[in-house]
Every structure is written in C-alpha cells, then in structure tokens.
Amino acid sequence: MSMFDDWRKRVEDDLVGAQQALQQKQQLLERLKQVHQQALDLIDSGSTVPVDIPWEFAHGLSILEGVVDGRHLPSTEEELPTRVMDDGTLLGCRKWELLDPQWGEALVEWFEHLLNRAPWAAKPNHIAMLDNASFNIAGDWGTGEYIAAKVAKAMSAMPADYTVHLGDVYYAGSSPDELRDFASWPAGTRGQFTLNSNHEMYNGAFGYFQELGLRFPLQQGTSYFSLYNQNWLIIGLDTAYWSEKFNLYMDGALGDAQTAWLKEVTAGWQGKILLLSHHQGYAMDGSTKTPLYQEVAAALGRDPDYWYWGHLHNVICYQPQGKLLARCVGHGAIPYGPAKALDGKPQVAWAETRSADDCQYPERVLNGFVRLELNGDALTETFYDENGYQRWPEH
To answer: In what helix (H) or strand (E) does residue 21 lie, and over which residues does it extend?
Structure first.
C-alpha cells in the first residue's frame, strides 16, 4: 500500500466521522478544492507573491484520489523547480518545501484529531531563576534533519542555563516525531522548555504532552509557564491549543483559562516582561499587529517589553514599536530563502540574507538561534547562525 493509499483510507474514514458528528464533510472537501486550485493558479502564474493558504491542505485531493477534477499538483522537482517566494518560503516539492508530499501527514493527523485532542493542563509552573541567567532559543526546529543538527551543535557550543523551543515538530507533532526530533535537543544546564504549536496540534497535542513528561519536567505537564527574578518575568504561552482548528491552528489564541492565568501572574508586577510564543504578534513586515497581540496586551494591561516568537520560518528583528522589542526566531531548521517582502520595510531592523552555501538547497540562507543573557535588569541578545557565528547585532 502506498503512502497516499494509506492516508486516503484514514482521511476517508475520518471524513465520514466528521460528517456524522459535525455535518461538515462537504465544507471540508470544498476547502480542499479551493486550496488545490489556489496552488495551481500560483504555480501557473509564475508569481512569487505569497498566497495566504494552508499549504498542509494542498495535497488533500491527491490523497482523496478520485475527487480531483483535472490536474494533480506537482509532487517532484522535475514537475516544479523550486521557486523562492517573496516571504522566503520555498515553493517546490523537495523535502520541507511548500509542496512536499509528506505534508500530507499533517493533514491526515488533523482530520483524525478534529474531535480528539489531549486534555488542557492547567497547573503551570512558576519558577524562580537567578538574577543573571542565560537562554538559548530556537523556533520551528523539529525536523530531525541536518540543519537542526547543525543548530543544535552551535547551541551546545555555548551552553545556557535554559533552552527554549518555540514550537513546531514536523510533520505533525506525533509521538514518533517528538521522540526522534528531540533526541538531539541541547538541554540547558538548569532546564529546558518547549511550546505548543499548530503542528503539535495536528496530532491533538498528544505527542507534545507525552514529550513534556519525558524531557521537559520543569513544565510539570503544562504547555505554558513562567520564570521570574527580581527584575524579570518570563512567560511561555500556549498560543496553539485554543486557536481555530478549522484554520489549521494557524492564527494563535490564548483561550479563557490562559488569559485568566496571564492576568493573575502579572498582577502587580512592576518589572520587565518577556514573552515567548509560537504564533506571532506582528504581520511579517511589522506593519500591523495581530489579533493575538491584542489579546495578549489586553490580558497584560500593557505592552510586554520583549517578545520572541516562531511560526514564520524566518529570522526577523523588528524596530522598537512603543515599548515592545519583538523578534521572529522561526529559522531553527526549515530551509528558507531571502525574504524580498522585507526589503526596505521601516519596521524591520534586520533579517537574514546570507547564503548557507547548501548544495541540497542552493537557495537557502542561514538558519540559527538567538542567545539571551540577563544581567540584573539588562538584557543582551545575540543571533547566531548554524555554524556558531554571530549574525546580529553586526560587529
């Protein structure tokens, strides 16, 4: 039985279940057809302008063979040579590119867990840390591939008190994915953390919560947490669990219980606040704030001082906006190219454009991580590439 044959049987079974439970089978099929056509139109046009579609849906009709009217989407490099989109994503069929056929696993897991997800854990840990503390942070790292291994080696070469993964274990955050991909994650000397994300939610977060118990004991089985000292409150958020599932958990949301906790843990706090999340607070170019930003600011009653997120497979340092200094650190492992959409944008201070000299992905620019060092009330941040070289601030 082929990969698509197995996936088709699983999706067909779950579509029947979804129809019986939610009467939404036709709605889901129409969405698959819409995404299929949008992908074909983009391929045919030759455009590099990003299209806001859930690419994990793209091969859905190919999985449900017999539903497709007309052309199947490309599934090989010969059918579609890689194209760098203006947002840096790679439109192609090679592994980890937008039309990699193996993204079908995410779609199948999503179907299977529409009505079945891990229970919400609601007893977050509140951890005291030293006044001087260091963090190595990488986002969207969970591929188990050679790029992630290079980033892990670079992180290990400069040990930190804590390491933080900002979420996304591929393809669908299942238990085998989590076990394999975190086998080489570099632990902090005092502990490590991992955030929930849209990809973990495709598996209903079952793999994610299992992994918490195996490798992330400081989180006490909970997908959100806080650390503090006399100057800093660091908050790790779960922005995936309560996100809209019919949009593939792509947007980010807090939910009522987490919102109440966020208000409680920050009540009366006069020091600095640093947020960690998977989903972003800004549009990619920093021009607008997302609904998640509005949710977070309302719960805090103020803007945070720093916010590090992933989700977008880029590294982007934004200019200060009001009180907030924000960073996208989603370049832990997925190959990506230079994002022309960021060129000349006034809210962007820096984004990676240097080639990785990768023969497997000639278009790829450098992946990496960020290191934070807290010294009293001061914060020093340094972005390093996969080879351990400082990339920003430039020196």
So the answer is: helix 3-22
pLDDT digits (tens, 9 = 90+) for 211-248: 999 999 999 999 999 999 999 999 999 999 999 998 89
Contacts 24+ apart (CB under 8 A), 292-296: 292/239, 292/251, 292/252, 292/253, 292/254, 295/253, 295/254, 295/259, 296/237, 296/254, 296/262
The DSSP output letter for 273 is E
Q: Which two tokens stand for residue 175?
A: 């238990």
Question: What gap in Å lies between CA 100 and CA 71, rounded to an integer?
Answer: 17
Pairing of strands 325-329, 315-318: antiparallel
Q: What is the pTM of this model?
A: 0.94
Other Cβ atoms less than 10 A from the Cβ of 159: the count is 13
**Given the DSSP bridges, would you call strands 348-351 and 315-318 parallel, antiparallel or unpaired?**
antiparallel
List, for residues 112-137, the tens digit of each pLDDT value: 998 899 999 999 999 999 999 999 99
